[in-house]
Write a structure and sequence with these properties.
In chain A, 94% of the residues lie in helices and 0% in strands. With 191 residues, chain A is mostly helical. Chain A is rod-shaped, with a radius of gyration of 69 Å. By secondary structure, chain B is an alpha+beta fold. Chain B has five helices and four strands, in the order H-H-H-E-H-E-E-E-H. In chain B, strands 2-1-3-4 form a four-stranded mixed sheet. The termini of chain B are far apart. The chains are: A mainly alpha (191), B alpha+beta (134). At the A-B interface, helix 2 and helix 3 of A face helix 4, strand 3, strand 4 and helix 5 of B.
């Protein structure tokens, strides 16, 4: 890249010098400048330039290009790393966010389940308590009715036994005769 | 076995009905005639004995249907037995005789027994009904 531009600049300078020399020679005034010496110097300068280009400028240019490539690669790698880091951070942030959302959902679900269980247990306990109370009340009523019936039967039996004893001792023949007459009327009427 | 017993009972019942006179009462003469005819039969002794037992039970039932037992506690009027017998005769359509029997456990009142039926108008029966109703 650099060599062609240098050669072009050297050729341009040689042409301008040759043109100046021709003008001076045409006018007859050369100012001590010979065209053949000038051409020779141009040739030797070109050789020096060529050698310099071959053994100094070219390796230096190659080294600089290589370093430039390395620097560019390093910058590109740094940019890539930066992009990857950003992506990774974004992924981590997204993951953290989704994990937090999931954890919140699980927590809410656990709370709802616990609340439902507590409410269910309370409802069942209340239902069982009501049922137990009703059963106890029914049992109590049954026991009370049974007790009343037993007391009534006992009292009736006692009264009947007492009346039987009283009748057996207190009724005289006159009373029995009247009762028998009534019984006879009852039996003959019913028949 | 059960069929044979039933057959014997039916046979005894027929013999008992033959032992009744025109008023529906057991006639001793007819009973004698039935027994004579049974004695004339040539039947196995065990079977004959079973038939006689069934006949005896049937005659007793017929006698019970023709007679009321009047149990009473305390004195009853002289015509009470006759009135009750006449009442039951009217109801059953056969001549019913009456037998009185004192029973102080009745406390007061009358109990009439006719065959398997009991008509109780005693104080004890009323008290028993009162106790049973409670």
């Amino acid at each position: 890249m650099i060599l062609p531009s240098l050669l072009a600049q050297a050729a341009e300078a040689a042409h301008s010098v040759a043109a100046t020399a021709t003008e001076h020679s045409a006018s007859g005034n050369t100012f001590g400048i010979e065209a053949k010496y000038l051409a020779l110097q141009f040739f030797s300068f070109s050789i020096v330039l060529l050698v310099l280009y071959k053994f100094a400028l070219k390796p230096l240019t190659a080294t600089m290009d290589e370093r430039s490539h390395k620097i560019a690669d390093g910058l590109r790698a740094a940019e890539d790393m930066k992009v990857k880091m950003a992506e990774s951070e974004k992924k981590q942030a997204d993951l953290l966010k989704s994990s937090q959302a999931e954890a919140t959902a699980v927590l809410n679900e656990a709370r709802a389940t616990a609340k439902a269980l507590v409410e269910k247990a309370q409802t069942e306990a209340a239902s069982k308590a009501d049922e137990f109370l009703k059963r106890a009340e029914a049992n109590l009523a049954n026991e009370r009715a049974k007790l009343i019936a037993e007391v009534r039967a006992e009292a009736t039996n006692l009264v009947v036994a007492t009346v039987a004893k009283v009748l057996a001792t207190e009724l005289n023949d006159s009373d029995r005769s009247r009762f028998n007459a009534a019984a006879q009327r009852e039996l003959t009427r019913s028949n | 076995m059960a069929k044979e017993d039933q057959k014997l009972r039916q046979q005894a019942q027929r013999l008992a009905s033959l032992s009744l006179d025109s008023t529906g009462q057991v006639s001793p003469a007819r009973v004698s005639a039935v027994l004579s005819s049974l004695a004339a039969r040539t039947v196995a002794p065990l079977k004959q004995r079973a038939l006689l037992k069934q006949y005896e039970a049937a005659v007793k039932r017929e006698l019970g249907r023709s007679q009321v037992i009047i149990e009473h506690s305390g004195p009853i009027a002289d015509d009470t037995a006759a009135i009750i017998a006449a009442s039951f005769s009217t109801k059953t359509g056969r001549v019913i005789s009456a037998v009185t029997k004192p029973n102080d456990s009745l406390l007061a009142g009358i109990r009439v027994i006719l065959g398997d039926h009991v008509y109780d108008a005693s104080a004890k029966a009323r008290l028993d009904r009162l106790a049973a109703a409670s």
